């Protein structure tokens, strides 16, 4: 059982049974493989007698993206497992608990969160998550601060950075977010109705300059250990609970990429409210929840991050230089705006779309939504470096909608 | 002989003799240990019959700095050897050739350059190096471009970055350049006559902000594989030849740190011309050589780097985004100015000084020189982010001298 091979359900049960203090000895366990089979096997093992359960996630040595399989390092299972452990230590209760990591099998055994809903699904159902902004801003502030040179020993940070070098998964981001949408690439995917928008992206020099700056920052900045793929499909939510999952893209990069990912996905849902069968007041109310969440994510992040810095900052120069913190926070906001925009654009014309928009049944409404999301995304990218406040980001979304 | 131990001269000869195609079989070899014994053993092995020779450099597991020995990873020998090999491939003829690297012994066997002079010594003797600006700008352009995301595959760069993680040596830089001079640290070393200058550094908030920004860039930017310690004591020079040695501080960092190191050391020599027993015209002539070199290093670097980018740039976004190259080059110049300033300040009040200034015999002249070097350094740091041209950097040196 130690050499790598895709596990069977029976083997998954045996591994689950071997965990200490989880299931009762000799009890019956059931198992379902619930993954989508593209990147990982995901086994859900349950003890029917008590309802106790556990998740086994095993990486597959290939990814079914771009229509065919391409080889992908099993090392991402190690990165995911180690990132979950780091994040769980820094943001307790906001990620699934890891019970076991087996490097030979590229297997992580972790807490079952099936009492939560994938947040993207919840947003499509227009569920309000009153805890979300507070929880995710705690997750962002704690994980980003304490893995950065501001909040950890600079020499230990270099060793941690080394163990999170993640070329395969970073390449996916570099290609699909910071390159392909801006040229006529085979990987792009968009509806013919918005071909004019796609072609405009390919020839917009001013946009390319800003995307190049964002791409370069993604390639060369090692501010903190990022989740690396923090969209609403990587978040399990309940109105009273938030759990961040799937950090297999974790690497040392610019903080604004994680914050921007959250904001981009809230704004994609904001755009998707074009599709609304109910009354206008209800649509407005849900959009107000979403823009409030955008504002709450940033302002919660900013105040918590500054508080951690003031209380736990350990760098002798960065801690006391007058004005440095203010400059740093402004740069983070500007990065956040730009990365949010890039994350929105790729979801409309790039390889991977979002269900919030793709599931809108009416073609005309879907097209209007796509054009709106692109307009917001492009403006965020172009104005990123001039952003002075989170209100300006919200204003872009609101004013593009009014046009 | 494979387990690590400091080599004897007899062992060094045996290793030299075992090299293929260097010395004649059975010939007599002589050996001298010529290192300063603080960080490394350096054996000079010569074949008197022919004059052929070789250098064996072995890292010691400690460093005698700060007055007592502190442990230092032998891994720096691997880093130095691997950096020399990378640099030799990218900038042929501008670094010593590596004949052998033995990881167990932390030993690099390399080309003997004793027909060259350490450039700092040459500058103190007021030797003119007409090839220097052209050679060092080629070294900088080639090594920095082809190890960056602009000039090499982005995934291979991540693996190379991983193998050049260098916490011990980076810590020396972080402490001695980007921290200690700006507070009353035990490691600082300065003459009582300029205590007012040192205390002014400790309380200058505007300066601390700029140093914090430079420190943060040193900690988090992975633009390219740097030499990491490119002062004129790391350069062997002849009027017709330039060789860069000792890259044990190599790591992935901001390009401006290497370029700034070269410029800082030229400007330290510029300041040291306060000491001059000859006529004023000759002093002016040597200063003109030095400021010409400063200008030539940057303009040579800039034109060669842009040419490499235009011809060999491989990144699909960074290559073609309109205006990106211009923004990038301006940022490099600004980083260069700031890092040059930080490198000058630490040489006056920090732990490690430069012989150019410390060997000035007259105390009053030495003090005037130190104040001048500090004035240039501080102004470079404070104006760094506003720098628009290399002429502005030269103007700072010239106008501070005129005051």
Automatic annotation (TrEMBL), chains A, B:
Residues 31-282 form the Aminoglycoside phosphotransferase domain. GO terms for biological process: L-methionine salvage from methylthioadenosine. ATP binds at residues 40, 57, 111-113, 246-248. InterPro entries: Aminoglycoside_PTrfase (IPR002575), Kinase-like_dom_sf (IPR011009), Methylthioribose_kinase (IPR009212). GO terms for molecular function: ATP binding; S-methyl-5-thioribose kinase activity. Coiled coil: none annotated. It is an enzyme of class 2 (transferase). It catalyses: 5-(methylsulfanyl)-D-ribose + ATP = 5-(methylsulfanyl)-alpha-D-ribose 1-phosphate + ADP + H(+). Its EC number is 2.7.1.100. Substrate binds at residues 229, 346. Pathway: Amino-acid biosynthesis; L-methionine biosynthesis via salvage pathway; S-methyl-5-thio-alpha-D-ribose 1-phosphate from S-methyl-5'-thioadenosine (hydrolase route): step 2/2. Keywords: Amino-acid biosynthesis, ATP-binding, Kinase, Methionine biosynthesis, Nucleotide-binding, Transferase. Catalyzes the phosphorylation of methylthioribose into methylthioribose-1-phosphate. Homodimer. Belongs to the methylthioribose kinase family. This is Methylthioribose kinase. It comes from Paenibacillus beijingensis.
């Amino acid at each position: 059982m130690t050499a790598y091979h895709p596990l069977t359900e029976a083997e998954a049960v045996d591994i689950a049974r071997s965990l200490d203090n989880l299931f009762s000895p000799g009890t019956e366990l059931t198992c379902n493989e619930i993954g989508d089979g593209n990147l990982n096997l995901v086994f859900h093992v349950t003890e029917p007698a008590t309802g106790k359960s556990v998740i086994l996630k095993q990486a597959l040595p290939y990814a079914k993206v771009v229509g065919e399989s391409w080889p992908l390092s099993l090392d991402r299972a190690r990165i995911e497992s180690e990132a979950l452990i780091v994040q769980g230590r820094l943001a307790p209760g906001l990620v699934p608990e890891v019970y076991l990591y087996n490097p030979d099998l590229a297997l992580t055994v972790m807490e079952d969160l099936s009492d939560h809903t994938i947040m993207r699904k919840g947003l499509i159902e227009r569920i309000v998550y009153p805890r979300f902004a507070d929880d995710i801003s705690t997750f962002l502030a704690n994980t980003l601060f304490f893995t950065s040179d501001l909040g950890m020993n600079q020499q230990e940070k270099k060793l941690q950075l080394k163990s999170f070098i993640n070329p395969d998964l970073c390449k996916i981001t570099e290609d699909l977010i910071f390159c392909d949408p801006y040229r006529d690439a085979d990987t792009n995917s968009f509806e013919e109705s918005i071909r004019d928008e796609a072609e405009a992206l390919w020839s917009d020099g001013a946009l390319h300059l800003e995307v190049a700056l964002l791409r370069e920052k993604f390639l060369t900045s090692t501010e903190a250990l990022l989740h690396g793929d923090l969209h609403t499909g990587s978040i399990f939510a309940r109105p009273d609970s938030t759990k961040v999952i799937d950090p297999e893209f974790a690497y040392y990069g610019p903080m604004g990429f994680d914050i921007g990912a959250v904001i981009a996905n809230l704004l994609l849902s904001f755009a998707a409210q074009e599709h609304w069968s109910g009354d206008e007041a209800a649509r407005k109310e849900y959009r107000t929840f979403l823009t409030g969440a955008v504002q709450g994510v940033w302002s919660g992040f900013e105040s918590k991050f500054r508080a951690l810095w003031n209380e736990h900052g350990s760098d002798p120069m960065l801690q006391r230089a007058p004005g440095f913190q203010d400059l740093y926070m402004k740069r983070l906001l500007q990065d956040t705006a730009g990365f949010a925009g890039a994350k929105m654009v790729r979801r409309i014309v790039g390889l991977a779309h979002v269900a919030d928009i793709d599931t809108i049944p009416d073609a005309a409404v879907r097209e209007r939504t796509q054009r709106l999301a692109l307009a917001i995304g492009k403006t965020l990218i172009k104005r990123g470096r001039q952003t002075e406040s989170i209100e300006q980001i919200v204003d872009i979304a609101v004013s593009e909608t009014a046009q």
